[in-house]
Amino acid sequence: MTILDERFRKFEMLPNEEKIKCFELNGRLFDMILSQQLNRQVLDDIYKITNRLRTIAKSKAGSVFLQTVLCHKRAMLYFAQPSSRTFLSFENACHILGMKTSEIRDPSVSSEVKGESYDDSLRTFSSYTDLIIIRHKGQNMAERSAWLLNTCTNRPVPVINGGSGSDQHPTQAILDVYTLQRSFEDQGGLEGKTILMCGDLKRGRTVRSLSYLMKNFEGVRIIYAAPKIFQMREDVCSFLERHNIPYVVELEELEKVLPEADAIYMTRIQDEHDEYAGESKKTDSSRFMLKVSHLASLRPNAIIMHPFPRRDEIDVAIDADPRAMYWRQERNGMWSRAALIAYIFNVHQQIMDY
Q: Could you list the residue range(s) of the whole structural domain that residue 80 is in?
C-alpha cells in the first residue's frame, strides 16, 4: 500500500458532508462525484440551463454561439468500462459547447498496461486537459481522482463521475431528475409523486444515485420492487430514513405496486457485478419485468423510465405507449450533461442571457 493509498483511505472514512467540501472551489460545484453534492437550487439551475440550451441549439446561429462558450477548453474522456450512451452523450455535450475532446476507452492502450499507476495516469491527463470525465468499474475511482487532483497536485481540474463501480452515477441521476421534472411540469412538479424503482437495486448505481436526489423534493415516496437478493442496500435506506423520505419494499411481484406509481423506473440485472458464479441466473426475476399486459394497471399520466441498456425487463412493444419516456430520457442525457459542464465552468449565465 502506497502513501497515497493510506491518505485516500483516511479520506474515504470522512462523512460525506466533509468529503463534499473537497469537491468544491470557492463554495461552488467543481467536481461532480456524488449525488449528495446536489441541492435543489443546483438541480433547478441545471433544469433551466438544459431547457435554454435546447432552445438556442435549434438555430444555426445559436449553435455557432454555443460552440464559442468553451472553445478554449479541452476534455478527457477516460472510460475504462464499456459504455455507449454515457460516452456519446458526454462527447457530444462537450462538442455542443465547443470543447475539444480526447479519449481512452480501453486501459490496455494506455500506459497502465506497462505498470503505470492509476494516479500517475490521472496526473498525466490533467497536464493536457481542463476537464476529466471518468467511468470505471472500480468502486470510488472517480472519488479518488477528484481527491488526488484537488489535494495532491498543483493542477486541479474538474472531474465528473460517469459511473463508478456499483456505487454512484450522479449525471444519470441529473438527467433522470430532469426527465421527471419535465414530464410532471404540468402536474404540479415532482413534489408528492411516487417513484417505483424496479430490478437490480442492490447493484444498480443509477437507482442508488436517483434515490439520494429525492431529498430535494417534498413529499416524494419511493417503492423498491425487486427479489430479496437484489433489494436496495442498507446505506441508501438509512439515508432515506434520516431525511424522512418514505419508502416501501416489494419482494413478491411488480404488478402489485404498479397502480401506485407516478413513475416506473426499470433496470436490468447487473450480472457483470456477480460476486459468485451464476448468482444472477439463479434468481427468478420474471415477476419484476414490465409486460404489455401491465399497461392497463398504470395511471394514465404515469411515465416509464429506463437508464439502458435494456434486456427483457421491458417488453419492446411498450415502446409505442405514450407513457414510455425512456428514449426521450436518453436524449435528455446529452443536454443535461452539457448544462452541467457549463455550470461547472461558470459560463451558464452567458447561455441564459443569449
A: 3-168+332-353
